[in-house]
Every structure is written in C-alpha cells, then in structure tokens.
Design a protein that fits this description.
Structural class: alpha+beta
Strand content: 15-25%
Mean pLDDT: 77
Helix content: 25-40%
Shape: globular
Number of helices: 2
Order of helices and strands: HEEH
Largest sheet: 2 strands, antiparallel
Strand order of the largest sheet: 1-2
Low-confidence stretches: none
C-alpha cells in the first residue's frame, strides 16, 4: 500500500526549491511551505 504522505529525497527537495518562488523547509523526508519570507523573516533579533 502506498503512503498517502509523499516523501522526497534531499536531491528532489533541492531541485524543486531551485525552481520555486516560494521557500520551503525539508524535515523528515517531507516538504513544508514556510509561512513567512523576506527581510523581516530573515532579520536577526
């Protein structure tokens, strides 16, 4: 039976990320969209 949750290799994630305008997090073979991007997100506190 195939898992309903897609799993990705690191190579697949990096390839998809290089083509995407959105930023994502890679965790435990899954890809999650980041909720915020841009200067305010990346600014150190």
């Amino acid at each position: 039976m195939r898992s309903p949750i897609p799993v990705f290799s690191i190579a697949e994630c990096l390839e998809a990320e290089s083509k995407s305008e959105l930023r994502h997090e890679y965790l435990a073979s899954q890809i999650f969209a980041m909720s915020a991007t841009g200067y305010a997100y990346a600014k150190p506190v």
